[in-house]
Amino acid sequence: MAQQKIILTGDRPTGKLHIGHYVGSLRRRVELQNSGLFDRIFIFEADGQALTDNIENPEKVRQNVIEVALDYLACGIDPSKSTLFIQSQIPELCELTFYFMDLVSVARLQRNPTVKTEIQMRKFESNSIPVGFFTYPISQAADITAFKATTVPVGEDQEPMLEQAREIVRRFNYIYGDTLVEPNILLPENSACLRLPGTDGKAKMSKSLGNCIYLSDEADEVEKKVRSMYTDPNHLRVSDPGSLEGNTVFTYLDAFSRPEHFGRYLPDYPNLDELKAHYQRGGLGDMKVKKFLAAIMQEELEPIRERRKEFAKDIPAIYEILRKGCEVAREAAAQTLSEVRRAMKINYFEDEALISEQAKRFSGE
After folding, report:
1. Architecture of 219-310 per CATH?
2. 16-109-159-129 Cα dihedral, nearest 10 degrees
3. Which of the four, 14, 22, 202, 234, has the lowest number of CB atoms within 10 Å?
4. Where are the chain's structural domains?
């Protein structure tokens, strides 16, 4: 029987989702969901991981579970095609994490570039890193393998985490036999979407840095954020040649603009290459480019905003979607955990051969 094609992906519910999430993974999830190419799609809220560095503020995570669910639905995630669930409601994931911890060394976790970056961002001292936060690559491997995911669509910053998950799968299968499925990463096809910078030009769009455009931002807020975006600091006059390198506005245009946008909002230019060339040789002001970007962003975000408002009119229905999704997800994770226990030979009470063998041994036969 051919191996099922399964997607597993998710987000930490520490705030509303922003356009970095959208171009990095969320937009692609919707496309994959509607492609018909996958047998199952699991999308989850990693509230357990979110608590590792929000342990003293659980209400923040609790409140944002519904915010993220609304963002998912507003972007086009369809509960009839994708299983939406909450990590903490699947206890099998904790047990799987516990077994995986024996397969990974402290030194290997310390070498994980994503972990190192996140520790620096949160300014943890070396002796104050929560163990749960430090080991979240192992937890993430449990999330992925519990659902036998073959494909994990994420941003570029998560590539080290996927490699660690693959290492865990390979080591488990080497020791205990072929049990777990090794996942593949699926990166955005557009290089500009790999890691969308913040509006301030910082390398990463981050809720904690306050440099995000949220999917739920109202039109005037989007306009304000686009107008304040970081561009080329040396482009002081319209006549000055401008640089594209590190210029957030053009990075966003790479991520969001399509050929048809020029005809609608900037007919002076046939395409993005011509716009870039004019900017580089001088004679094109930042505000004109920002106005173009703002129009594109409004076109992209307005339908998402409106759908979100509609879904928000019936919050109990959203929780019901999540509850049903958790039931489906738990059933899948329990099946994998049963196979893991069998492979590790810790399925004592269902192993009739073991019970019979021990009975004979102790009866003197």
Report:
1. Orthogonal Bundle (1.10)
2. 20
3. 234
4. 6-195+315-355, 219-310
Same fold: 6-195+315-355 with 219-310: no
CB 340, CB 96: distance < 8 Å: yes
Contacts 24+ apart (CB under 8 A), 311-317: 311/70, 311/73, 311/74, 312/70, 315/66
State the residue for tokens 């790999």.
194
Q: What is the DSSP string of 154-180?
A: --GGGHHHHHHHHHHHHHHHHHH-S-S
Q: What angle do CA 142, 145, 147 make, to 5 degrees?
A: 110
Q: What is the pLDDT of residues 49-70, one digit of tens each?
A: 999 888 889 999 999 999 999 9
Cβ pair 212, 18 in contact under 8 A: yes
CATH number of 6-195+315-355: 3.40.50.620
Q: Give the phi and the psi of residue 245 in degrees, each rounded to 5.
A: -65, 125
Nearest CA among 234, 240, 325, 226 for reference residue 19:
226
Cross-strand pairs, 40:
6
**pTM, whole model, 2 decimals?**
0.91
pLDDT in tens, 211-247: 999 999 999 999 999 999 999 999 989 999 999 999 9
Q: Which of 259, 290, 295, 291 is nearest to 274 (CA)?
A: 259
CB proximity list for 22: less than 8 A, separation 6 or greater:
75, 215
Beta-sheet strand order (sheet of 184-186): 83-86, 40-45, 6-11, 151-153, 184-186
Please state, in angstroms and rounded to a whole number, the distance separating the CA atoms of residues 23 and 190.
Answer: 9
